[in-house]
Amino acid sequence: MTERPCLIIDGLQYAKWSERIFREMHDGGVSAVHVTVSYWEDFREAVERLIEWNRRFETHGELIMPGRTAEDVRRAQAQGKTAIIFGAQNCSPIEDDIGLIQVVHDLGLRFMQLSYNNQSLLATGCYEREDSGITRMGREAIREMNRVGLVIDMSHSAARSTLEAIELSQRPIAITHANPHDWHAALRNKSPDVLRALGESGGMLGFSLYPHHLKDGSDCTLRSFCEMAARTADLMGVERLGIGSDLCQDQPNSVVEWMRNGTWTKSLDYGEGSAGQAGFPPQQEWFRGNLDFGAVAQGLRDVGFSEGDVRKIMGENWLDFFERSFGAAAA
């Protein structure tokens, strides 16, 4: 099979998975996607999501395969498949048991956020008024995540917690889906101080394509997005950048209520940028799904990125990060 000319890796999606989407991934040349298996799910509920994925691998094995290592991604690209990399957008699957960190890694998780918007047992979320930083358990969790090769993701965490995670972690962390706060002031977007520290530590930023995280929302232009990427490359270094689309393709609006409310509140928590309406915003016209990564790559070229740097942002940087991050730490 002919090798695809440009490696495409998406640092985060939470789609309503189907054969149609898997075929779009194939047709769009997407060789790996980090998929969310847990928001508020506890350990047993997260295992149920993994069981569902095992069934998908059986049913759609000609299109998708498990992705646990960088080599799995290379093999997926060579075979014309998409490697599916599991992650949790909260620490709920480990409950309050440090021993579950190795268990979830053994089950295939490779990313775990320390918090999702709210205060967790490990860190403060970006919606909290006060950011107390990494907790006592959070320090232990970071140490254990470093040991087994479970990547620390601070996409939904507050600034102090994120900076402390970068400092405490002995391995580079990731912010898989966010943008610079000085480009668009969404609560989840990150300050220059955070991005600078992330880059200096060898971590990775995945640019989000979710409208609430974009300047001008659904009306954001490709040019504006790519010019933002160029400025961020000046701040962090192009080797620290990738894509983390946060694509929620085909999900019904009711899923937003689960993402925001989970099991922690009876009230509607609409979240940032929603103007009091629970639901997914329309995607911008230049990125509607997995067929459109080529448009992003061309937009990066159009604002002056070299072909080599475009390849890095579209996938090679993530692959290098996986190579360094997914295995157990050296003794």
Q: How would you describe this protein?
A:
The model has no long low-confidence stretch (mean pLDDT 94). The chain is of the alpha/beta class and 331 residues long. The strands form 2 sheets. Strands 1, 2, 3, 4, 5 and 6 form a 6-stranded parallel beta sheet that branches. Strands 7-8-9 form a 3-stranded parallel beta sheet. It is built from 11 helices and 9 strands. It is 38% helix and 14% strand.
Q: Spell out the CATH superfamily.
A: Metal-dependent hydrolases
Specify Rg, calculated over alpha carbons: 18 Å
Question: Can you summarize the main beta sheet?
Answer: 6 strands, parallel
Structural class: alpha/beta
At CATH's second level, what is the architecture? Alpha-Beta Barrel
Order of helices and strands: EHEHEHEHEHEHEHEHEHHH
- Overall number of strands: 9
Mean pLDDT: 94
Distance between the termini: 39 Å
Low-confidence stretches: none
